[in-house]
Amino acid sequence: MATARGFGVDIGGSGIKGCPVDIDGGVLAEERMRIPTPQPSTPSAVADAVAEIVEKFSWTGPVGITLPCVIKDGTALTAANIDKGWIGTDAQELFAERLGRTRDDVLVLNDADAAGTAEMRSGAGAGHRGLVVVLTFGTGIGSAMFIDGKLVPNTEFGHIEVDGHDAEKQAAASVKDDLELTYEEWAPRVSNYIQALEKFLWPDLIIAGGGVSKKGHKWIPRLETRTPVVAAALRNDAGIVGAATAAATRHND
């Protein structure tokens, strides 16, 4: 029996990456292609980059695409770490037109929601009930919340106020890099952030994702939190896998 395949593209503040995905296995089916996010990251420039990736693999089926934005009915309502021109843009229509597809063949979703969906389906959250929060540490901090495995879309926990500042300005992975912090120096910032989040939520599990999750052993054990924290199993591929899965699943429903 042929393996079900989909295609996912994950748009971040610094890079855009995508490739075909093995939907059943919840893993990348080919080596992903990554290109730097255009600067400025306008809708038109990003759409061209997405098309370049999709065309590289000669992919003709449905495509799932993530954006670091709140997404409702295919439209971006916020823009974090990406050009403000996205706000109010019908991203689903934009990508469909640029990729030469119908609107129904393109699904656009929040990047952290996509990553979280993949982790809950075939990663660190598989089989977990109760309240699970997925936090993606990258250019900013993305969040996804699940209750008994069901997504509560478009949470923005990376933007809660911590010590008078936007949380991601204090604890994102980009802050670690910009300030040249060691994992030992960065971990207290993450602890402080999660402790602030724990004032409002009582999660049963927190899954830490993003590129820094592959070095999770260097900082996750240093965290001082009430909630158990584990590294994302799919690491930085979770957004691609989640986007592809969501698009393929919707198309097959």
Structure description:
With 253 residues, the chain is of the alpha/beta class. It folds into 2 domains: 5-113 and 237-250, ATPase, nucleotide binding domain (Nucleotidyltransferase, domain 5, 2-Layer Sandwich), CATH 3.30.420; 127-231, Nucleotidyltransferase, domain 5 (2-Layer Sandwich), CATH 3.30.420.40. Helix content is 32%, strand content 25%. It has 8 helices and 15 strands. Strands 1, 2, 3, 4, 5 and 8 form a 6-stranded mixed sheet that branches. A hairpin with a 2-residue loop joins β10 and β11 (150-152). α1 packs across α2 and α3 crosses α8. The longest helix is centred in the C-terminal third of the chain and has 15 residues, at 183-197.
Biggest sheet details: 6 strands, mixed
Number of strands: 15
Helix coverage percent: 25-40%
Strand-residue proportion: 25-35%
Question: Can you name the CATH architecture of the largest domain?
Answer: 2-Layer Sandwich
**What's the CATH superfamily of the largest domain, by name?**
ATPase, nucleotide binding domain
Task: State the CATH class of the largest domain.
Answer: Alpha Beta
Question: Which characteristics define this entry?
Answer:
alpha/beta; Nucleotidyltransferase, domain 5; six-stranded mixed sheet; five-stranded mixed sheet; 8 helices; 32% helix; globular; ROK; ATPase_NBD; transferase; Polyphosphate glucokinase
Quick structural overview:
With 253 residues, the chain is an alpha/beta fold. It is built from eight helices and 15 strands.
Blueprint of the fold:
Layout: E1 5-11, E2 15-22, E3 27-28, E4 33-36, H1 43-56, E5 63-67, E6 71-72, E7 75-76, H2 91-99, E8 106-110, H3 111-122, E9 131-137, E10 141-147, E11 150-152, E12 161-162, E13 165-166, H4 167-171, H5 173-178, H6 183-197, E14 205-209, H7 216-219, E15 229-231, H8 238-252
Helix pairs in contact: 1-2, 3-8
GO molecular function: kinase activity
Pfam families: ROK
Family: Belongs to the ROK (NagC/XylR) family.
